[in-house]
Amino acid sequence: QRRVHGNTCIHKKMPKEISDIKRFLQLTKLDEVKEKAAGGESKKPASVSQHKKVLYIKKTKKITKFKLRGRRYLYTFKCQDQTKAQKVLQSLPSNLTRVELGKQQKKAATKKKK
Fold it and tell me: Using N-to-C axis directions, what is the helix angle for 82-91 and 21-37, rounded to 10°?
């Protein structure tokens, strides 16, 4: 989407929710496939080609949210079944950076109050 302010044009980047497990797993492995197909050589600058995806995992009592930060978008996948969430975690690539949210932040907030 584009929003125009005066003479400048600003691209609005919105998060995208993915409802299919297979599609979400494809997105996690997408950069690996492109790099292998190119034979390891890239015409892009080093800063662009070395971009790593980060997966944020937020667990609650009922829902597990997986948020994949890509170059352009933030992809979100919600899973209500805990067994499916564990299977998704096991099938993720090992080189993907994982950050767990929730429990650590709550503990830090309670320590500050005391």
Answer: 0
Burial classification of residue 74, based on how many CB atoms lie within 10 Å of its CB (0-12 exposed, 13-18 middle, 19 or more buried): middle
Q: Between the CA atoms of 15, 18, 102 and 84, what dihedral angle is there, to the nearest 10 degrees?
A: -170
Residues 12-55: tens digit of each pLDDT? 567 889 999 999 999 988 765 454 555 555 455 444 445 678 99
Question: For the whole model, what pTM was predicted?
Answer: 0.64
The token pair that represents 108 in the structure block? 């830090």
Q: How far apart are CA 56 and CA 97, in angstroms?
A: 9
**Half-sphere exposure of 28 toward its Cβ, with a 13 Å CA cutoff?**
26
